[in-house]
Amino acid sequence: MEKKWWHNSVVYQIYPRSFMDSNGDGIGDLKGIIEKLDYLKLLGIDVIWLSPVYKSPNDDNGYDISDYCDIMEEFGTMNDMDELINEANNRGIKIVMDLVVNHTSDEHNWFVESRKSKDNPYRDYYVWRDPVDGKEPNDIPSVFSGSAWEYDELSGQYFLHLFSKRQPDLNWENPKVHEEVYNMMNFWLDKGIGGFRMDVIDLIGKLPDQEITANGPKLHDYLQEMNKKTFGNRDVLTVGETWGATPEIAKLYSDPDRHELSMIFQFEHILLDQQEGKEKWDLKPLNLLELKEVFNKWQTQLDGKAWNSLFWNNHDLPRIVSRWGNDTEYRKESAKMLATLLHVMQGTPYIYQGEEIGMTNIQFEKIEEYDDIETKNMYKDRISKEYKHEDIMESIYAKGRDNARTPMQWSGEIHGGFTKGQPWLMVNSNYKEINVEESVNDPDSIFNHYRQLIELRKKLPVIVYGSFEMLAENDDKIFAYTRELNGEKLLVVANFTKENAEFSYNRGVHEVSILLSNYKNSSFSIENLSLRPFEAIVYKI
Ligand code: NOJ
């Protein structure tokens, strides 16, 4: 595979609303991000994925855009944005923008026009259909509960919204929509950004009349056209959000010969703790054997053919240390264990803000304290279906998106140093113990572990390009694998549990050194290892 700069890069995701507030209005902003660039430089990341900063009425916190070429007032101005791009570039950090083009806000001018009448020039920018038997055209559900069709009195037709009813879906069967989107993308590329993260990009090829939403037949034609007309001749990173991808589908997107995207986010590992065929709120414990099988599949099947992204977290997912680690007794050990497993695999690692200091999930007592539209809609929907309040709250505690959205914990000061005002969402009360200041100063912190993992990736091509072999596939406590490139070999062994666990590597006698561990005095005897709770070791053998 041709080498690319993003093969050995590490990406850091910022959710601007919760990152750093510079002006005391309780909402994070662009100037706040600029203030913290040196912190990100210290961590060692190369790229920032910025969740949406465009003008938006915030029905879905910026994923409902009313003007793609303007900045959300609470976040600052276009001048601030230009400054952020420059200041980041000065530090060797690229800014990847969030591209949300499956839908817009209902306040976007295109939709305001489209809604006016059936013969408005913008009518076909969106998906309008007549009622069928006086009802919704069909049964497509919205991801945020209820039907994906909303009736509009004015014209007597329904419009499609796969997310909230304030996020109408663009009609990608209309070539004019393509042109508008490509012009907008070039506007941003001309500013010197480092690429795009593409929101639910697998939905743009939808055929609503056939109830096909993901992976529609024209999807890849559209992406090849987009590539050609926008970023194809620029050296940028593009990553598509694709919930239903298999390795075969991933290769369609990111085989370099097909000229589509650099990589995708696949979610197969993320879906393992929900009941099959049900919703994410229908919980089931993680089975480690399944987790290993999924990683094994992706690591081996894309090798040399396409590129993986590596992540545990983002702004839609619960905090990994609370989810599959241990956020009480072994918070530091388990956060480092999870980081180690992911960061020594092949692919581009993504760190979500706060993950690098081991931030944890939140539990609000009342549903009114939550902000997230998905959470609130689901609560209403399940209450109306007679689920018990306690059961719904349990799902929200485990999976709600606000787990990831509480403000960044910078210090032990009031509101975790995030704002001098009243934060838009409550700060997790553990900020006195878990914060950046404490983490940066403690050589044994989770932060410093992430730093070392990033340094290792920069130093060792075997981490970037080595082949992957899963070990101990049937062991339900141990996650272990090797990486190998040109005779250089790494062995990663992790105990995924809070009990001691045994592991042995019996492929001849080896000279062994330890590159990184989350415990002091880890053992060198790989033929006969006893691992402490959540112990994770990277050996060079
Ligand atoms: C995926 C985004 O990550 C999520 O936050 C958003 O609500 C939906 N797409 C709709 O844009």
What does this structure look like?
This protein is of the alpha/beta class and 541 residues long. Helix content is 28%, strand content 16%. The protein contains 16 helices and 20 strands. The protein has helices spanning 30-35, 37-43, 78-90, 109-116, 175-189, 219-229, 247-254, 288-302, 320-323, 331-343, 373-384, 389-399, 402-405, 436-441, 446-459, 461-465; strands at residues 11-14, 47-50, 54-55, 67-71, 94-99, 128-129, 149-152, 157-160, 195-198, 237-241, 263-265, 309-310, 348-352, 467-471, 478-485, 488-495, 501-503, 513-517, 529-531, 536-540. The strands form five sheets. Strands 11-10-9-5-2-1-13-12 form an eight-stranded parallel beta sheet. A hairpin with a 2-residue loop joins strand 15 and strand 16. Helix 7 runs parallel beside helix 8, helix 10 (331-343) packs parallel to helix 15 (446-459) and helix 11 runs antiparallel to helix 12. The structure holds 1-deoxynojirimycin.
Features:
541 residues, alpha/beta, eight-stranded parallel sheet, five-stranded antiparallel sheet, 16 helices, 20 strands, binds 1-deoxynojirimycin
